[in-house]
Amino acid sequence: MCGILGILLANEDQFVSFSSTGDNYSHHSSTNQVLISCLFPNSLACEQVNQMIFDGLTVLQHRGQDAAGIVTSERGRLHLRKDNGLVKDVFRTHHMIELRGNFGLGHVRYPTAGSSSCAEAQPLYTNYPYGICVAHNGNITNTDELAEELRTKCQRHINTDSDSELLLNMFAEGMASKDSGCDELDMKEKVFKAIEQVMAKCKGGYAGMYLINGIGLVGFRDPHGIRPIVFGSRQAKSSETDSPVPQTPAKMRKAGGSLDYCMASESVAIDTLGFKLVRDIRAGEAIFIDFKGNCHTRQCHANASMAPCIFEYVYFARPDSIMDGISVYESRLMMGEKLAHKIMKTHPDHDIDVVIPIPDTSRTSALQSAYHLGRPFREGFIKNRYIARTFIMPGQESRKKSVRLKLNTIKSEFAGRNVLLVDDSVVRGTTAREIIDMARDAGANKVYFASAAPPIRYPNIYGIDIPTRNELVAFERNEEEIAEHIGCDWIVYQDTADLEDAVRQCTVPEVPVEKFDTSCFTGTYVTGETIGNEYFQRIHELRNDAAQEERRSGKVSEKEAPVPSGAQQGCESVHNDQRDETNVQKGCEAI
To answer: What are phi and psi of 216, to 5 degrees?
Structure first.
């Protein structure tokens, strides 16, 4: 799961670069799959594209904490900065000064494909044609097939294991094609035909954006709408009209520089940056915003059908986001209500004294469960907000160690009581087991556990790090065995049908959603993969905890080439990556 951000100020003549002193930016300490794109067609320099991308990525930091990157375009020259780490640590004052330009992309990474090398941090770039960058959220499932085609038929070099590089090169190949039937001046048609080619050949769940240097921004979503992406706009600061923002992209086709645009993984970034949410990009749709600020849309896949990932509503998305017209907060309230009914059905004579959420995601569901169970809701765990989300923390040992650092108990809420702990989901069971031990250490009499999601028994292949069945606590275990494994007195899971109903009941008439991707619960994959085939065997070998730990320790498998000694752990050798403050050479990576 990742996030990206892009901004374009279409009239470069009105773009005034900011002071080289960097007074507008705070100095960031050197101790150290989110998607956003924005287009400012005619805005004055009262707001900088780099600062807005930085702010947007910070809002979406929960979607990825492994790496961050920003690329901007300044009069045909691209400036790039990316590295492993959080947004606040990757971008310091001298980086921000050099990220000049009137449009750009940003990305925060949560790795599910490829490695954790900062060379695979996004945005990624290819110089031909035009100069194209990509920021991508999700996962491509037919990577071997695509890589072979690009190498043999297109003579394109693939330098990493990242599926995002394949998305970049597939689009670039379409844009470079002389057989598109488009006049070179008809860039809109050229862009949409290239997107059609990408969607026809790339299987999986993905949402992303392309920055085409000097031409514009493209946002797109896979034919099943698995990964989220929303679209917003506002009046440009320099616009002479006070008319309201058009409510549909069709009315923005001749905006002519009067509107600014923003695309993001979640609507919370649209809101925070001062834009008005227009709608989600639809399954199989692309939105092209040209350099003049005109907005064009097209359905690029004939057999598109909506099946958004339900795990976004369960865990990943912020509660104040709206996805496909569905309020994440309201859907979690419904999950809590249905979970309470399941508890009363399976344990009608329960002796629960208090309901305690496991911060933070489960708080909404736990509150509603407590209300319907008629039991008090209490905060029993206090969270250290400076520890990363444990589910997306790499490595089992890191996750186990992190739980005790992240949470501490309020012992008076546990002492002598029968407590119901509510979590959004149980994946590997690592966090649940540690938290149950903490509850018992705090004096709890009995510890019950409830999950707002069904048992996770299958890998997720669309961009969430649930890669191997044998690492899942529910794999080949029933509820009694799971309860014994994690150490609670009993456990209750949400039913899959109830989870789907909880989210579906929050839909709006304008955006009907009848189907969801629930593959990690049911084993049914909307793109057709079958458990046990070669693809699942390969991702097991590449992405299980042992394999990831081996890569992090620096061991090289027989299939991998060693990293050259001067390669800075896989990063490009750029002056601003690793250096002393006393020898700062202002400048981002030159493309």
So the answer is: 155, -165
3 state DSSP class of 428: coil
Q: What is the pLDDT of residues 49-79, one digit of tens each?
A: 899 999 999 999 999 999 999 999 888 899 9
pLDDT band at 584; cut points 50, 70, 90: very low
Host H or E run for residue 94: helix 93-98
For residues 531 and 161, what is the distance between their CA atoms, to the nearest angstrom? Answer: 23
CA-CA distance, 291 to 257, in Å (whole number)?
Answer: 9
**333: Cα separation from own chain's centroid:** 23
Per DSSP, the three-state class of 565 is: coil
d(CA 556, CA 542): 12
Q: Is 558 helix (H, G, I), strand (E, B) or coil?
A: coil
What distance in Å separates the CA atoms of residue 482 and residue 434, rounded to the nearest whole number?
14
User: 3-class secondary structure for 378-416?
Assistant: CCCEEECCCCCCHHHCCCHHHHHHHHHHHEEECHHHCCC
Distance CA 474, CA 520 (A): 11
Q: Determine the pLDDT at residue 102.
A: 81
Q: Which residues are catalytic?
A: 2
Could you write out the DSSP letters of every residue in 4-60? EEEEEBS-GGG--PPPTT-TTSPPPP----EEEEEEBSS--TTS-HHHHHHHHHHHT
Q: Indicate the DSSP class of residue 314.
A: I
Q: Do residues 513 and 308 touch, judged by C-beta distance below 8 A?
A: yes
